[in-house]
């Protein structure tokens, strides 16, 4: 089984503001006969149609008519966070984080069209491995006049000169970003994206040279939505985790949800890192029967030791997380079926 992780945050500005459904929210993935439907669109979720173990996160904001705003977060394959700001939204700001392998480029565009996205204000590449920038490369290579989707700023990891990859995919990624985005930014300092009633703080890797792998240059992110917090890790491993700890770059309070680093690999989710974040819930994106053996048993045991509940897309399918700004409720595709 594979699926999405849907995070829906209800930040109440007036009444009844629901992520993914601006009128009401009765179930996550309602079952119609044998069809599980996307709670955002009502369209069927096709088994195996999402990215397998690759983070692709869309964030968006919708402003309410009274001037208050709510973020709209969405991501497919690993995480979809989708937030709607009210019954009469008037403007949007959307962010895409990572895009899977090159084969996912057309899937990205199909999802944008499905959700009615005509502009991405930010496209974020956590680090330049092909399984994170491949789909972005294909999508950014599309002429906006043909795709119907324009791109504002592309943000990517500031990799030191000695470690800049020379892969064809990375070169094309940069070429396509320069050709079709309004701006390109190599993140060297923390950046906070104001999403109205939520913020997304982008945290560059504190490792500036001699990283063990490109994974250790991953951009991390802290989403704060009301009293709820979500931490995203890219493919950060123990080296970057230790650097984040040493430079006091992690949130000072426990997080509600941790998107587990590097798909739950053996070399991520160190004990010290998990103890610092102390997540209530952890979500792992990994494909069923993947050849890497993700998630690794050691990583699972360390997550269990800090007392968090673990959700996995290979076992749970689509995972829906709903926040009212104070508490979370979680339901999975496996439960719904």
What does this structure look like?
This protein is α/β, with parallel strands linked by helices. Helix content is 21%, strand content 28%. The chain contains nine helices and 19 strands. Strands 11-12-13-14-15-16-17 form a seven-stranded mixed sheet. It has a six-stranded mixed sheet with strand order 5-4-7-8-9-10. α1 packs across α2 and α2 packs parallel to α4. The longest helix is centred in the middle third of the chain and has 13 residues. It is globular and about 50 Å long.
Summary?
The protein is α/β, with parallel strands linked by helices and about 325 residues long.
Report the total helices: 9
Q: Tell me the helix content.
A: 10-25%
Low-confidence stretches: 11-92
Largest sheet: 7 strands, mixed
Query: In angstroms, what is the radius of gyration?
Result: 18 Å
SSE order = EEEEEEEHEHHEHEEEEEHEHEHEHEEH
Q: On the 0-100 scale, what is the average pLDDT?
A: 77
Let me know the number of strands: 19
Structural class by sheet pairing and helices: alpha/beta
Across the major sheet, the strand order is 11-12-13-14-15-16-17
β-strand percent reads 25-35%
Distance between the termini: 12 Å
